[in-house]
Amino acid sequence: MKKQQDYESILDSISDGVFTVNDKWRITSFNHAAEIITGIPKEEALGKPCSEVLRSSLCGEECALRQTLEDGNPIINKACYFISSQGNQVPITLSTAILKNSDGQVLGGAETFRDISEIESLKKKL
């Protein structure tokens, strides 16, 4: 159990949103920054399909995490948006990775994302 707590503490110390999914696309971890950025509590996100929780512009056929799991190539800083718990479009950049166990077996995937609302707002002002 200590290992799990250490793992969660590490994820919660990251300022980017981070979530992981299993091979059934169910969220298995959701860090504190992900809660803040999305407005969705961790308890509400865990166990649900990621497309239900994040409602991203890339969900479905264009899913970045699905692409990474299919071709093995991570995606770095791809721009898109998701719909927050308040119903607002939030611009983000995301990166994806494959999660494997020590034997190299694929367990699922990981995605990190960063809210770029302030950057987008500054771009519009300029």
Keywords:
single chain, 126 residues, alpha+beta, five-stranded antiparallel beta sheet, 6 helices, 5 strands, 35% helix
Tell me roughly what share of residues is in helical segments. 25-40%
Query: Runs with pLDDT <50, length 5+?
Result: none
Largest sheet: 5 strands, antiparallel
**CA-based shape:** globular
User: Average pLDDT value?
Assistant: 87
> Order of strands across the biggest sheet?
2-1-5-4-3
- How many separate helices? 6
Structural class based on helices, strands and sheet pairing: alpha+beta
User: Quick one: how many beta strands?
Assistant: 5
What is the terminal-to-terminal distance? 50 Å
Provide the β-strand percentage band: 25-35%
What radius of gyration results from the CA coordinates? 15 Å
What string gives the helices and strands in order? HEEHHHHEEEH
Outline the structure in words:
The protein is globular, with a radius of gyration of 15 Å. It has helices spanning 2-12, 32-38, 42-45, 50-54, 64-71, 117-125; strands at residues 17-22, 27-30, 78-83, 89-100, 106-115. The protein starts with a helix and ends with a helix. The mean pLDDT is 87. The chain is an alpha+beta fold and 126 residues long. It is 35% helix and 30% strand. The protein has a five-stranded antiparallel beta sheet, sandwiched between helices. It contains six helices and five strands.
